[in-house]
Amino acid sequence: MAILPIxxxxxPVLHAPAEPVGEITDEIRELVRxxxxxxxxxxxxxxxxxxxxxxxxxxVYSYEEEDGTARxxxxxxxxxxxxxxxxxxxxxxxxxxxxxxxxxxxxxxxxLRRSERALLRARDIDGNDYELEAEGWFARILQxxxxxxxxxxxxxxxxxxxxxxxxxxxxxxxxxxxxxxWLPGRDDLEG
Length: 191
What we know:
By secondary structure, the protein is an alpha+beta fold. The protein has helices at residues 26-41, 136-149, 162-172; strands spanning 6-7, 46-48, 58-64, 70-82, 99-102, 105-111, 117-123, 129-135, 181-182.
């Protein structure tokens, strides 16, 4: 197993829709093992193929619910349904509760409104179809990772004034260009 470099905002693979995985080969199984190891070391709660430079429709996730229920898996060629759709609320965002981060926009957190519930249909590493329902933070994780497969980074979805702040940070750190990455366990991205 290997720790994979995580691509940073601006790398072309992050901004293009990913291609279907199709057949689950030994190469895909090894990639998934490496993605779990990379996500755990980062540390993160999800990691999509494009984030490690692979433009395939798959992501891994690992999250523990408040009741202790562990959610850890892989979604291959997933379809995500939001129910209800993202609320069109005029309420202000709760910066503590609705903030999220991204391993491809490392060290930053910004508030973003997401749907409270999601339904995921995908295949597991053995090619078996499965379906799961998610609420709250787990639904947020699935939406975030699914966005990566569509070529969307959460920073692209931010509203004012956070969009401006995020892109100011991006310019300051010289992101937004191809070829930038970081390696969990080696690179210090604080501050």
